Amino acid sequence: MIIIMDPGASAGEVREVNEEIERLGLRPFINPGVERKVIAVLGEMNVTKAELVEHFSMFPGVARVELISDLWKLASRTYHPADTVVEVNGVPVGGQRVTVIAGPCSVESEDQTLEVARQVKEMGAVLLRGGAFKPRSSPYSFQGLGEEGLQILARAREETGLPVVTEVMDPHEVGLVEQYADVLQIGARNMQNYTLLKACGSSGKAVLLKRGMGSKVKDLLMSAEYILSEGNTNVILCERGITTFEDSTRNTTDINAVPVLKSWTHLPVILDPSHSTGDWKYVGPIARAAIASGADGVMVEVHGDPQRAMSDGMQSLKPEKFRELVESLRSVAQAVGRTL
Ligand code: PEP
Ligand code: MN
Q1: 98 — phi, psi (to 5°)?
Q2: What is the rounded average pLDDT for all residues in the chain?
Q3: For 86-335, CATH number?
């Protein structure tokens, strides 16, 4: 349920509504960013919704009361009609400009990471990606450099000025990863790790939440809600392909998810064509489709020597291919009224 106050509602009227919500054992959550106050009511209700709507409609200063999905509220466009722009060290994600995030799948060494960071920055990336803690299907595959990898990413940021996006896999490691990262990535496999979602929700860092390979768009929004309801409003959603019966590509890009998410939520939505296709040859076309369908950005894996990459070489672009991609994305962005 959300309570929409009159534009001229007084602070006292807003306070009274808040106090009543709390008196009923519920939690008020005020959307601060808009001129007219909208209060989301969170928590389990033991009275019927119709009764609650009627009850709050009678309060002075209340314009109307709306029932919205019980499953996600803070993530919904009804609660927050305007697009959210997540600021990452001064780099906006969402809004008019399309965001390009690029870098290796894994941080393998200082030389590899610094070199690719310099290149993608010069070619138009505004955020650097790279995994230090890697969720690998086999325990015998490269697991990432851990803290050393984080230190390398921090040096790459120092040198290039690019803020860093990196994955955190364990709720106990949020404290460590946030010392180095600008954006905490929650990977597809952890999209429903609720302890991790809550830990990232209490962090001061922005969160990039990837859709699980077997998860619905609705599940993604409920996971985002876990982060938002802990007080962290800086959430970026990422479509990265889902598992279907189709086996011609690693995953199936759910391009529909982009306009659906843009209509259901105010949060920025990006697409990861590297994981959604699993093949560098298809990364360009799907990245362009993402921007054409309204995504706020793309996240692309780039490696100086993909054949020797320690993870995801098949889907990594060589730097010169990345340059071509960014140039082509510029025209697509322009065609849909955006910039890059
Ligand atoms: C990654 O971004 O390198 C990654 C592991 O992605 P996902 O969680 O989408 O598989
Ligand atoms: Mn990868």
Answers
A1: -80, 135
A2: 96
A3: 3.20.20.70
Compute the distance between CA of residue 276 and CA of residue 308 in angstroms, rounded to an integer: 21
Q: Give the pocket of ligand 1 (CB within 6 Å).
A: 105, 131, 135, 187-189, 210, 240, 275
Is the distance from CB of 214 to CB of 241 less than 8 angstroms?
A: no
Give the pLDDT confidence score for residue 33 in this predicted structure: 56
Domain boundaries, the chain: 2-66, 86-335
Ligand 1, atom 1, residue with closest C-alpha: 105
- The secondary structure element, H or E, covering residue 331 is helix 319-335
**Tens digits of per-residue pLDDT, 276-323?**
999 999 999 999 999 999 999 999 999 999 999 999 999 999 999 999
Report residue 129: phi and psi, to 5°.
Answer: -105, 160
Listed as ranges, residues in the chain with pLDDT below 50 are: none
Ligand 1 atom closest to 135 (CA): 5
Cα(45) to ligand 2 centroid in Å equals 42
Give the C-alpha distances (Å, rounded to integers) separating 114 from 105, 145, 149.
14, 15, 12
Q: Which CATH superfamily is domain 2-66 in?
A: Phospho-2-dehydro-3-deoxyheptonate aldolase; domain 1 (3.30.70.1140)
**Per-residue pLDDT tens digits for 145-180:** 999 999 999 999 999 999 999 999 999 999 999 999
**pLDDT given for residue 32 in this prediction:** 64
